[in-house]
Amino acid sequence: MQMKSIRKREYFLFGPIPPPYHGQSVAFSLIVQAFNAREIVLVNTERFSLRVMNTIYSILCTWYYFAFFNFDTVYFTSIRSKLGFVKDCNLLLLGRWSGKRIINHLHGANFHSFFHHSGFLEPLIRYCYDGVDASIVLMPGMEKEYADFPGMEIRVIGNCYESSFDEQDESMFQKKNRILFLSNLMLCKGILEFLDACEILLRNNPEIKIAIAGQFYSDAFMNRRSLADHFYRKYRELKNSFRDRIDYLRVVKGEEKIRLLFESDIFVLPTWHPSEAFPLSIIEAMRTGNAVITTRHNFLPEIVKPENGILVAPQSSEELARAMETLLNDPARLKQIQDYNRNYARKEYNPEKYITAVKSIITGYTHDSIPETNLRAPLKSKLPPPKVVALKTQPSKRG
What is the pLDDT of residues 45-94, one digit of tens each? Predict the structure, then answer.
């Protein structure tokens, strides 16, 4: 007999809520907002600035919700680090042992590498992810990230921009002959290569302006303080030489970010981040009518085609500068790419399409408007509400 203290919810959502702002936290928050608060229990896995505090908080909240709430489905955004896995492991073990339906959403490109370089943790990771019913990946090709888990259903759903971009009166914005770098400032996001390319560009193109926006973060290659030292040294040299033609705006968000994107002409992201997959910033840049310059790295060539912009080699300032000058020297081509990207993003990456597709997987219902994206098995037939039918076809995996 169920105790009265147990409260009913339908879904347990486990992932990061901004701040800090990054692709995974923005995408997860869109899904959280799509549910009625009475349907869900929620754990914000990035509530604190310290990773250890987030790990402890997430584990304690997970145990609390499993003890005092009754829900059918777990939706989480997987982390591909050993400390991050501590949070996910706790969730996945409880979910598996209690027979929950588990949906994973992968926002990066390195789960396979993480799994096979996890050392003594590999058997535990295998056991945990053998209990996952379905994983959402961002594009075809990313299914190989879960090649070691043949019983897992794989679904493909691309990212989206936020609905606030569609709420703007675009006639209020005018392009300002500006190149924009908008991303977290990390060494592997290519910020130092971008600054080197800017020196070439500013010297050869007296009319162009450059804006840089983002917050400094450490990565596996350089800590935040060292990166900031390198950045400011280069930036001050450029500022002294070119004055108001280059600006570092620090963190921008909300209306300021939207205006900055709409009033820029070319968006540059020279990333070589190991887990780069489907950056939201590129989608936002397309939606706001920017040509895109990024790298031939991981899955980025699947996103940025010749009609969207230009691909360059990672860590090549010279090639990056040439790509920017190529577009600046061909205004007709630049305008054609800008117009194409604006219309393409509206069609392919609109938030309503994204939210409907992800929510349908979490709730267990399919919709006629959602294209077939299952890479391993046929979709379940439409399920009559309110019963949620698990995707699992091999219940013997539990326990």
Answer: 999 989 899 999 999 999 999 999 999 999 999 998 888 899 999 999 99
Q: Strand, coil or helix: what is 216?
A: strand
Domain boundaries, the chain: 7-160+351-397, 163-348
Cβ atoms of 63 and 94 within 8 Å: the answer is: yes
- Residue 86 CA from chain centroid, whole number: 21
- Fold category of 7-160+351-397 in CATH: Rossmann fold (3.40.50)
The C-alpha atoms of residue 238 and residue 244 are separated, in whole angstroms, by 10
Q: Report angle CA 297, 302, 307 to the nearest 5 degrees.
A: 110
Q: CA separation (Å) from 101 to 27, 81, 294, 362? A: 21, 23, 38, 9
How far is residue 90's CA from residue 61's CA, in Å, rounded to a whole number? 11
H or E segment to which residue 134 belongs: strand 134-137
Residue 41: strand pairing partners: 12
CA 101 to chain centre: 23
Cis amide linkage into residue 270, ω under 30° from 0: no
User: What is the number of residues in the chain?
Assistant: 399
Asked whether the beta carbons of 292 and 211 are under 8 A apart, the reply is no
Phi, psi of 244 (to 5 degrees): -80, 10
- List, for residues 128-151, the tens digit of each pLDDT value: 999 999 999 999 989 999 999 999
Contact 162, 30 (CB under 8 A): yes
Quick one: 163-348 is in which CATH superfamily?
Answer: Glycogen Phosphorylase B; (3.40.50.2000)
Q: What φ, ψ does residue 251 adopt, rounded to 5°? A: -80, 130
- Are both 7-160+351-397 and 163-348 of the same fold? yes
Residues 6+ apart with CB under 8 A from 140: 156, 302, 375
C-alpha to C-alpha distance for 164 and 167, rounded to whole angstroms? 5
Question: Do residues 20 and 29 make contact, with C-beta atoms less than 8 angstroms apart?
Answer: no
Spatial separation of the C-alpha atoms in residues 200 and 173, rounded to whole Å: 28
Neighbours of 303 (CB within 10 A): 23
| Residue with tokens 């840049």, as numbered in its chain | 285
Name the helix (H) or strand (E) containing 8: strand 7-8
